[in-house]
Amino acid sequence: MRSGAVAVERAARATTMPVIQVEELTTGYRRREPVLRNVRFTVERGALVGVLGPNGSGKSTLFRALLGLLPPWEGSVLVEGQPARPNPDIAYIPQRETIDWDFPVTVFDVALMGRYPRLGLFRRPGKADRELALWALEQVGLVDQRDRLIAELSGGQRQRVFLARALAQEPELFLLDEPVSGVDAPTQHFVFELLERLCRQGKTALVATHDLSCVAQRFDRVLLLNREVIAYGPPQEVFTEALLHRTFQSHLLLLRYGDRVIVVEGEDGDERSC
Amino acid sequence: MNGAVELLLEPLRYGFLLRALVAAVLVGAICAMVGSYVVLKGLAFIGDALAHVAFTGIVVAFLAGFSFYVGALAAAIAAGLGIGWVTRRVGLSTDTAIGIVFSGVFALGVVLMAIGIRTYTVDLFSYVFGDILAVRSRDLWAIALAGLLVVGTMVALYKELLFAHFDPVVAEAAGLPVGALQLLLLLLLSVTVVVSVQAVGVVLVLAMLVTPAATAALVARRLPAMMILAVLFGTLAALVGFYLSYYASVPSGGAIVLVATALFVLVAALVRGRGAWRRLMAARG
Q1: Domain, as residue range, for B72
Q2: Is residue B3 domain-resident?
Q3: Does residue B261 form part of some domain?
Q4: Do B49 and B281 meet the contact criterion of CB atoms below 8 Å apart?
Q5: Which CATH number fits the domain that encloses residue A161?
Q6: Could you tell me the residue range of the domain that residue A180 belongs to?
Q7: Domain count, chain B
Q8: Would you say residue A167 lies in a domain?
């Protein structure tokens, strides 16, 4: 009865309400030194949004604000119409330097952790949770690695484990901070494929990345960020020389082929796999 | 055969020796359980500091005339929460700060003890190296209660403690009270240290926290297995150490820790390689 009402309410929201509404957000860590200033954008359900900006442009800070881990100094951050707060409907994959890789946990253990926030205190994961964790590992192609320790995995496999954990969480919104930096080309390709598929199924994803060409090919929206929103819109509108230059200053190379603009990062212009 | 059984049973005819054995085994098990996280998260230094602060708490409690446990527990919990607060606020470079503060508090305890001995002619020094034969039945109750609390909490909140300590950033983002869980672990560590001080002493508590868990880390692949093995190693060290202490007439704390260390060396020699060493070295940082 009650869950039915919630489902109806959710369906109603799904059609009308943007997943993310950020209004005039100013926030940061140290007093009087905001990292983000007057940030304003809206994300519709099912959108795959690339967040682009140089290092230190506030991408991770924006994610922390969307998670409710960093309160707004000014303005507001609404997720599903509510002020942002940590909750299991958002799956977060941060940059990986905070992880303790030597912890004695297996691939399956990590995937199962995705279920923990859904279970509540004291409750142990049941059969359904274990099946979901296995399903998630299947999605990322790690199901036959499930008994290996995470310390034994390659960089690409590690990133897939955390994707599996995010999937097992069954979230509505994915926040991925540099999910393909330092992983092999097949994993990169795989991650973007998976994200596209998820967004087609009505999930929403924000992805911070340096990979401009992948964003140009696959993403619905691009948020150009450098302490403030430089531009926000579909890649073909946003990827102009002037806007990219304002975002990245001089680290960037632009190539034009006919009416197509191809963007290559100046620092590492290697062939990327989308 | 009969002779061996007789050898094992002989000390247990005496009530105080039976109490000592039960206390040693319980302390070995509890320390090893908490010790799994101490080893994984590199909390050894904090555990050591807590033991020293607990000693000062004991001295103060003695001089002021209230219960040993109240003093030690109050001091250790205050210290545990204080360390938690400092590490969360200031970051990792607090090792030096912890060292300074807790050496200072321990020194205060030593000085106060000297004053106490002059006045009361009581030997508080046994707490430095531990005296398991002095365990009274109400101490045994305290140890059992602490064990129930520590092991019960770690089992009941297994998944929360694991997530919060393995990947705090994501756990917090998913809505887990990570800060509270980290403080809870320090609280459990404080309780463990306090009930262990009488049995093995301030100096050797650290060994009981670290050595059995580190031995388990050499062979176990997953956390539950590591905890179970750590408890087994801790219990075994307590048992063997107890009899060694009885028959060789050596201090119980020292004997127990020596057995634990011997177990570590033995297991390490048997399982060389397999990445276990690397894991252990990394966990120390």
Answers
A1: 11-284
A2: no
A3: yes
A4: no
A5: 3.40.50.300
A6: 45-67+84-265
A7: 1
A8: yes
Calculate how close chain A gets to B166, using CA atoms only, in Å.
6
| Per-residue pLDDT at B35 | 96
Three-state DSSP class for residue A44: coil
Q: How many residue pairs bridge chain A and chain B with CB atoms within 8 Å of each other?
A: 92
Chain A residues touching B279 at Cβ < 8 A: 102, 104, 151
Residue of B nearest to A148 (CA): B221
**ipTM here:** 0.85
- pLDDT tens for B139-191 read 899 899 999 999 999 999 999 999 999 999 999 998 899 989 988 998 899 89
- Minimal C-alpha gap between A105 and chain B (Å): 5
The 10s digit of each residue's pLDDT in B44-102 is 888 888 888 888 888 888 888 888 788 888 888 887 777 777 666 655 456 776 777 77
Q: Determine, yes or no, domain membership for A16.
A: no
Q: Is residue B185 part of a domain?
A: yes
φ, ψ (nearest 5 deg) of residue A254:
-115, 135
**Quick count: other Cβ atoms within 10 Å of Cβ A250?**
8
Residue A120 sits at the chain B interface (C-beta within 8 Å): no
* pTM confidence score: 0.86
- A191–B contact, CB cutoff 8 A: no
The three-state secondary structure class of A31 is coil
- Report yes or no: A176 at the B interface, CB cutoff 8 Å: no
Q: Residue B169 maps to which CATH number?
A: 1.10.3470.10
Q: Which residues in chain B are closer than 8 Å to A117, comparing Cβ atoms? A: 171, 174-176
By CB neighbour count within 10 A (0-12 exposed, 13-18 middle, 19+ buried), where does A175 fall?
buried
Number of separate domains in chain A: 1
Contacts by residues A248-253 (CB-CB < 8 Å, ≥ 24 positions apart): A248/A53, A248/A54, A249/A54, A251/A54, A252/A212
Contact B166 A113 (CB under 8 A): yes
CB contact under 8 A, A88 and B175: yes
In this prediction, residue B135 carries a pLDDT of 84
**A67 interaction partners in chain B (CB closer than 8 Å):** 173
Whether B160 and chain A come into contact, CB under 8 Å, resolves to: yes
A36 in any annotated domain: no
A110: nearest CA partner in chain B: B163
H-type helices in A144-184, by residue range? Answer: 155-168
Render B21-64 in DSSP notation, one character per residue.
HHHHHHHHHHHHHHHHHHHHTT-HHHHHHHHHHHHHHHHHHHHH
Two tokens, residue A216: 């140009």
Residues of B in contact with A151 (CB under 8 A): 275, 278-279
Which secondary-structure segment (H or E) carries B249?
none
